[in-house]
Amino acid sequence: MDCERARSLIDAYSTDELDLAATLDVGDHLEGCPACTDELESVRALRRTLSASSLRYTPPPELCRRISAQLDPVATWQDPAPRRNVRRFALAAAVAALLLLPWAGLYWNASRVTADRLSADVTSSHVRSLMGDHLLDVVSTDQHTVKPWFNGKLDFSPAVVDLAAEGFPLVGGRLDYVANRPVAAIVYRRNKHVINLYTWPASAADSQPSASEHNGYHLLSWARNGMYCVAVSDLNPQELRHFADLLRVDPGIRH
């Protein structure tokens, strides 16, 4: 792992958001890279600073009066105790928002970097597979040939579905490396277009396909039955979505 890759994962690493393989890779890199170790310490120092009690905000009396005036236009004969509770709640909510904004920014940035990196990794793998003889390790249109081929080569059994009747014939599969781990790449065709379906185990809850684009290629990613799937192709988005929908409703999709 190089420094650019490690630094893109440091935010997530500092909060234990990475999977085991990525955590080990970043940890190994940090052991031999003082610069990235300093970067990690800077991130941790920022988090400590943001959580320090000195950042707690005490609003001035005038602000309290203005908030009270806006939240409490009710007649003065009402019991003052509930009004005080409302004021305290409003002030607490304002302070909480001020303190959480930096954390929300850090979390969003780490999530965006991770998603962008995954799109780049998958797209690069797809492009490499189209160069020379890198597309297939096992050549077969028979799902009962392709699926057993992965036995002993991965720590999971990928689902392999024949969609030839729906216009997406299976052509084979191969081993690949995406998201810092070995994955199964199941290869389909749609007319002259190649579709690489990458799949690996994940703890994410089932989700609808999420569309993205990278370097002119279309990607759809989703989670189902403990597996994460990413389909990538230069096929138009509508047909790629149809392909993903067929996979998601097929009863054979299981790990």
How would you characterize the overall build of this protein?
This protein has 255 residues and is an alpha+beta fold. 48% of the residues lie in helices and 20% in strands. The chain contains 7 helices and 7 strands, in the order αααααβαββββββα. The chain has helices spanning 3-14, 20-31, 34-50, 61-71, 80-129, 143-149, 237-249, and strands at 138-139, 170-178, 181-190, 193-201, 210-214, 217-224, 227-233. Strands 1-2-3-4-7-6-5 form a 7-stranded antiparallel β-sheet, sandwiched between helices. The chain is elongated, with a radius of gyration of 25 Å.
Summary of the model, kept short:
The protein has 255 residues and is of the alpha+beta class. The protein is built from seven helices and seven strands, in the order αααααβαββββββα.
Task: Please state the overall shape, judged from the principal axes of the Cα atoms.
Answer: elongated
User: What is the ordering of alpha helices and beta strands?
Assistant: HHHHHEHEEEEEEH
**Helix proportion range:** 40-55%
Specify the biggest β-sheet: 7 strands, antiparallel
Look at the structure and give the CATH class of the domain at 132-249: Alpha Beta
**Mean pLDDT, rounded to whole units?**
79
> Approximately what portion of the residues adopt beta-strand conformation?
15-25%
* CATH topology descriptor of the domain at 132-249: Phosphorylase Kinase, domain 1
- Give the tally of β-strands: 7
The tally of helices reads 7
Low-confidence stretches: 103-113, 251-255
CATH superfamily of the domain at 132-249, by name, is MucB/RseB, C-terminal domain
Class of secondary structure makeup: alpha+beta
CATH architecture assignment of the domain at 132-249: 2-Layer Sandwich
Based on CA atoms alone, the radius of gyration comes out at: 25 Å
Question: Biggest sheet: strands side by side, in what order?
Answer: 1-2-3-4-7-6-5
How far apart the termini lie comes to: 29 Å
